[in-house]
Amino acid sequence: MTKTARNQGRKRKTKPIKEKKEKNGRLTLFVYITLRLFIVLTAVLAALAGQYYVVFQCLLALLLFFLPSILERRFRIELPNVLENLVLLFIFSSLLLGEIYGYYSRVPYWDKLLHTSSGFLTAAIGFSLIELLNEHETIALKLSPLFVAVFAFCFSMTVGVLWEFFEYGCDLLLGADMQKDRLVKAFTSTLLGGERVVVDSVSVNGIAWEGYIDIGLIDTMEDLIVNALGALVFSFFGFLLIGRRGRGRLAFLKHFLPYRKRNTDAETEKSEGNRQKNEKKKFDNRN
């Protein structure tokens, strides 16, 4: 088979894949534009109402929407459309729906759902970091599937802990109450004899509350637990994915994994030309 025939066969084979990518790309663009328009509308209404903190949150969300593009250009990687859509929806759900529209208090378990999703997504990012190094042309790094899975889990948990540090700092310095308070009806304390104490009421500044006021410990621990659950789910299936070399029913996980950009034909020819020039220069220097 001639080189021309092979190229034509390759083009016919990749045409359906290319069309599918273009269709998914249009969906990503639709999601991107729709969410941005909603954020801009919210910012305009907040500015007219004098709610400048809401305007700041909207601007922060708009800036974070550039994050996928920045990562792609900076590290020369491609984010799958599914992953990019999930990242955009996560930013929108946490900052807009959660903070501005009060879903954290209005919708049961909204916060826990986002922390579970965060654990899953950050585990995917940690997983892909090792996979990209494994596939790197100049870095000799071959790691076992178990190590990659453990690293992905630990990476996700590290991000989760750093986020809890951020929430604590905002509560301490800005009074943001990101670590949600709650009333506790009973607890065990060594200061109270080490026995379980039932709290009927607590008075704070003359105001009676029906229980002990926890200022964020339980919220923090629950956030980390569901983060670990999301990370564990992806790490487990990621471990199986490597073992099956990306085939079978687990192939859908590839939609959550960034991959290295493939060089175009022009870039490949340029790289090959530079390599040959360097080899020729080394040969001339030896002689």
Any overview of this molecule?
The protein has a two-stranded antiparallel sheet with strand order 1-8. It folds into three domains: 15-107; 110-180 and 216-262, no CATH class; 181-215, no CATH class. The protein starts with a helix and ends with a helix. It has helices at residues 3-48, 52-64, 67-75, 81-100, 103-106, 110-134, 145-174, 217-243, 265-286, and strands at residues 77-78, 182-184, 186-188, 196-198, 202-204, 207-209, 212-214, 259-260. It is mostly helical and 287 residues long. α1 (3-48) runs antiparallel to α2 (52-64), α2 packs antiparallel against α4 and α7 (145-174) runs antiparallel to α8. The chain contains nine helices and eight strands.
Structure described in brief:
Helix content is 68%, strand content 8%. The chain has 9 helices and 8 strands.
State the main characteristics:
287 residues, two-stranded antiparallel sheet, two-stranded antiparallel ribbon, mainly alpha, 3 domains, flat, 9 helices
Strand content: 5-15%
Helix/strand/pairing category: mainly alpha
**Main beta-sheet annotation:** 2 strands, antiparallel
Q: How much helical structure, as a percent, in the residues?
A: 55-70%
Task: Please tally the helical runs, counting DSSP H or I stretches of 4 or more residues.
Answer: 9
Q: What's the overall geometry? A: flat
Order of strands in the sheet with the most strands?
Answer: 1-8
Rg computed from alpha carbons, rounded to a whole number of angstroms: 25 Å
